[in-house]
Lysozyme-like protein (Schizopora paradoxa), 308 residues
Amino acid sequence: MNLKYLVLALVLGTNNALASFDVLKFSGAHRLLSQKRREVVSSVAKGVKYRLSKRSSVQTEQCVLQPKPPTFPGSDGPNGTVGGSNGLINATDSSCGASGATLNITAKSGPNGNIDWINCGITDGGWKPPFVQISDIVTVELSSVLEDSTSPFQACSSYVSIFEKYGTQFDVPPILLASFAMQESTCNPKTVGEGGEQGIMQISQDKCAGAPKGDCLDPDFNIMAGTEFFADTLKGNNGDLFLTIGEYNGWSSGLTISQATAAANSSCCRCQNNLDYIHQFLNGWCQNIDAYSHDPPLGKYFNLNDCN
């Protein structure tokens, strides 16, 4: 067999080539072979190009850098903090005795201590808060609890990105900011307190300067102002967290029960200091527990109940 027809047999298939032996001339076979070779080469090239393109695409996707989640003081992971390895507050101040922290949340205790320890001295000469820093407390992560459809923080779902934004800017765990919002207004941005407190974070009117179009209820501005106040106060208190949380509700070192409840019989009953505030904040909201509807109710004094 002519060598060129043998090659043609290999390319087209032996049967097809032999069947065409008598009718194809050398020149015709040569042209057909050349055309088929070009088609084969073109097909192979396209396949190689596709595989290279696909491989390049996969490699590109694998090399995309994902943004690193923000972390905060004492955090073991993004957007949250933890206390001791045993799930209880890592108390560093023994001046008020043992913390009385419990894994289970009860009316008077939880992972961040017993209410009598938190309110140390308030019934005996004045409040002497144990020194605790953000890195010592036990909390949940805001981003995680929102995966729970029954979480009380679902009320804050529209504002999570704002809590995270200003939490990152002011170095405060977002769960603390959302807990203030729940404690103060149950995350209702239209709330106005009896004393004129404004918005979702219930900031005092003196902090409303610079609000967009004078609207202190604007959620972004309100959360920013509340976060800035908390962060500045915490810094001024050298990281004393209990004192700073208390001061958000008007507490001060040395506070007594009579001082805290002085406004009970006034025209602004809710201008009292909530004596269960810090316990509800740390052992309620910060644990993804509704401090207002929990059974049993979280607290010991319930001095604001007289205002209803």
Observations:
- Confidence is low (pLDDT under 50) at residues 3-34, 43-69, 73-81.
- The chain has two domains: 3-62, 115-307.
- Residues 3-62 form one domain.
